[in-house]
């Protein structure tokens, strides 16, 4: 296995709400290797985005992160805000789902790009602008020199997301955090953006954490996958293994319920019964037990540990404990 | 006679008008025709801005078409006096992409669901309205106690079920489904698609299923209409279409949908369609797809291909398509 760049241990995220404390992420551990793309896949309420927000120090003001997240020699969760500012932008960057609300509508796109280089790269205004134009060209913005002088509203959705990618990769971060970066885009544009991210990451050796709800997107870009449900990791494996032989009932359900065009048609789509978890207290047993069709008595009483099934595959299910 | 026949429909939005200046019509849907039989589903697919939602609304006369006809059981809806049109509306319903926004937050679900009945059958008493709302709830898989709840208490999937209950309570013949599962979680999308298919079987419903997700459309549709910049580029039956789309745009759209299979997807990495979706304000003069088409020839940039029948009976608007 490649050397790990990011090492997250027992990350929990809690939110203070009027009705008490709500746990969005519950003791999640994972690593991201040098140049590796880790997919975190889950439905709404799984806590997948909150993991990224916690790493970036961007949790809402009523949120609190616990645990450890080592990037290089630094624990991101224990850093003082000024120290974190130096890491964010320089060592790690984030792209968000909605590219429009992530760009300043009153500032030319080129200026927004150049700002990172001036702050983190120590470049002068002119050199930073030239570099910004070069990067826009790199993410295939047509007529980049002129486009850099335009404002975000003059760009299409796909172009805006490419601008965000340019901005994130401009300072050559070691780690890129991507929060559903293609969900708001058309499928044709999504394919372009994924191609671009894969190509740039490969060239620069940037590691990526790619959060999505779409298993198809995971299959296209991710090396390894963590399946999240109700704030906990249900299963983790290299992508080829997870798709070929998922072991957790939730991963299996998610894979079977995703329609695929290559498969023979069936009278009805396979479903996972019930509704994704929304808020409320963490369950004493498995997060997925309320929707699981193969659960046993233990599933609602004790939380199954994440056990190693094969050297590369871990899953948290009582039914698999004997198999370990 | 088809339940619904759309003939050469044009729909446009007025732009650029002012106090003393006349507005011009920006064409959004151009020259679209299709037939839909009772009990069948037409899937309409295309990228954002292709006019698929506008087409759905124009069929229901929620947006007035600027040319062409919408024939409902042979009658041109535009020719009907408003009162006559209103009566037919109980036969044609719509469900929306954002299921929570489609529900009035201050009404109970029971009242939301029974509104169409209260309008179309004004003689019904409160108890009867309630009973019918409860049975509609049960038809969509929700328990009777939902009738007393409010929209903010619902998950996205439950809200879409309520939207469907409201649509079916008046026993319609057609439901326009405008991206009904796009905003839902993957595990809930399948539940809602199955529910629509069940209701279609039970009630003989015709469905227009508008979506950008070709994998889901495949499951529910009998025929597929592919739109690009307001025009039909292909109209085919489901099996022929998915075996091999005839139009290069339809093929590109199909290839862009990621399959949950790393072997397939790794091979596709780096093969995405280059270029930008052209603006509806400045559509290309020739084929609507020519600027992005990997197979485009000089002719495609100059001459718009007509929608023509291919050997296997499907329609495609491409100079070079073969059926």
Major β-sheet annotation of chain A: 8 strands, mixed
Number of helices of chain B: 11
Q: Summarize the biggest pleated sheet of chain B.
A: 8 strands, mixed
Mean pLDDT reading of chain B: 94
Radius of gyration of chain A: 21 Å
Specify the helix fraction band of chain B.
Answer: 25-40%
Helix and strand pattern of chain A? EEEHEEHEHHHHEHEHEEHHEE
The fraction of residues in strands of chain B falls at 15-25%
Question: Largest beta sheet of chain A: what is the strand line-up?
Answer: 6-7-8-3-9-10-12-11
Distance between the termini of chain A: 21 Å
Shape type of chain B: globular
Mean pLDDT of chain A: 92
Order of helices and strands of chain B: EEEHEEHEHHHEHEHEEHHHHEE
- Largest contact between protein chains? A-B, 50 and 49 residues
Distance between the termini of chain B: 27 Å
3D architecture notes:
- The complex is a heterodimer of chains A (324) and B (323).
- With 324 residues, chain A is an alpha/beta fold.
- Chain A contains ten helices and twelve strands.
- Chain A has helices at 48-56, 81-87, 109-121, 125-138, 144-147, 157-170, 187-204, 215-221, 239-244, 249-257; strands spanning 4-17, 20-33, 37-41, 63-71, 74-75, 92-95, 175-179, 207-212, 224-229, 232-238, 307-310, 313-315.
- In chain A, helix 3 crosses helix 4 and helix 4 (125-138) packs across helix 6 (157-170).
- The longest helix of chain A has 18 residues, at 187-204.
- Chain A is globular, with a radius of gyration of 21 Å.
- Chain B is an alpha/beta fold and 323 residues long.
- In chain B, strands 6-7-8-3-9-10-12-11 form an eight-stranded mixed beta sheet, sandwiched between helices. Chain B has a four-stranded antiparallel beta sheet with strand order 2-1-4-5.
- Chain B is globular, with a radius of gyration of 21 Å.
- The model of chain B has no long low-confidence stretch (mean pLDDT 94).
- The interface between A and B is large, with 50 and 49 residues.
